[in-house]
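Practice set, problem 2.
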Amino acid sequence: MANTRKQLALSGVERRSVELDTIASVLPIDRRHELAELLTDEDVETLRHLVNQGMGSNTLRALTSDLTYLEAWGIAVTGKSLSWPAPEALLLKFVAHHLWDPQHRETDPDHGMPADVDEKLRRQKFLKSVGPHAPATVRRRLANWSTLTKWRGLDGAFASPALKSAIRVVPRMRRRKSTKAITGDVLAKLLATCATDSLRDLRDRAILMVAFASGGRRRSEIAGLRREQLTVEPPIEMPDGPPLASLAIHLGRTKTSSGEQDGVVYLTGRPVEALNAWMTAAKIDSGSVFRAIGRWGNVSPQAIDPQSVNAIIKQRAAMAGLDRGDFSAHGLRSGYLTEAANLGIPLPEAMEQSRHRSVQQASSYYSYATRRSGRAARVL
């Protein structure tokens, strides 16, 4: 009897793995088998429904990440998958485990997340932060939990006075995602470390150039980029030189697009050449564009993890003699707008490429460039 239950459980995991594979083109998943073990049949069916409804891939990816974390936390706490709708007591426990006072913890070791829950989540690589979570992260996960509950046709206790009171905490100071922007001069140093025709150098050079030139794409967008999103455009005629290769990247619906809008950004010249060189060398004509490279130089069929984009940038920074702690994937995004401002490119034109929705956020990089080179900074 026990063996029969085990076989049924295994078949369920395998079935969910196959179902997750069917939505991989919209939702790149690098821990698919682990997700199949954590998510329930109902979870997977909900994700498939959202894909069919045309939800933006970035939003869907974030929702899946939060759902997986919630399921992992729920199993670590209760020993079973989440119940729907979640009881108010479980919601309050989630807040208590993630928003706690470090000073109170010094005198009360039971305050905050229990050690056994913490250890389980860290072993599964779901918990990486040290100390309490950012209030914004907790609120986002609760909001996604509430949304998933409503999509199942259920009502939850997410508006209860007790829960609202529990999450009224003083927000932590937001840390910058990247200490320094990767502007043109820094990018040139990183690219100089990709000087050979090895697969790794070709891939990393393409990642750096495409991520920067396409407006500072997010690491999730770069890791999830697929060959089917690329279309060849007519060459750009140049008055004083040969035509430049042109390529369009169709981003689909993202968190900065709305309705049926299909975000499109363009690559011209050197970034297109770098991308084509990588895809030719790696023999990529479909599926994921940027893939892992094995120890013996074999190109994996799987996409790289978004965190790998961060690791590549830090590794290249160290190879260039820079402090790897100063740079991250977000530095490409902030660096693009900073460089555009330094070159005098109009803000609306730069925002069309970066796909920033907030003028206030994007203009902050322009204000920095103006202040740095303006008369007020040259009074002596």
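Problem 2, part (b): a different protein.
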Amino acid sequence: MADSKIFKLSNGLDVEKIGQAVQNWLREKKQLHAEGVRTNEGYLVQAKQEDSWKKVVGMDAAIQVQIFSAGEDQVMVNVGSGKWVDKAGAATIGMVAFAPLAVTAAIGAWNQKKLPEELFVYIEQFIISGGKSVTVSMAASQSVHDGEILCPNCKAVNAKDAKFCVSCGTKLGKECPNCHEQVGLNTKFCPNCGTDLNPKPQEVTCPDCQQVTSADAKFCPNCGHAFN
């Protein structure tokens, strides 16, 4: 059986928009050759490594992601593997029968159970954010507005209450080292115990030249004095 999950749609998103986002995610985050196409049942995304795409076009296995309506305001997402389907032909067929992911040269050697989990997290956050996913290359020019935060990993813009980045899946939060309260990335003081969550690094002054340096330095970077 392929990995499957049902998502509730919101914010004006539809099957095609989610499919296009999945296609971009596989290209940018997994560095795969990916194609997406509308089908009779919904949207199909296929992906495989660039090398296999160049060597054996149309004759090797591929990751396949099917996205289709599962009732009012709901979509079903299936993730599996199968033979690459010609893009022109894919648009005229119904559901593509495929097997669970298998680690092959055509789809990469990552943990086959990890990819569906990462993809499902991405789709969930993409829906929650209203489709505000951005690419890494675009992130540098994005401005952050009220109710939004930047992912510390890829700099994508996310909703302030998002738990994972819509672009790369990075966890968007941190833990207070004192009371272990889960807080937002931009929180300066723990709301539970008041601990400073952005403490300044400890420093030491060299007794010979008065150079201020990190407390964990073994030698002064200015004069070479050895710290005990």
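Answer key, part (b): The chain has five helices and eleven strands. The helical segments are 15-30, 50-55, 87-90, 114-128, 136-139.
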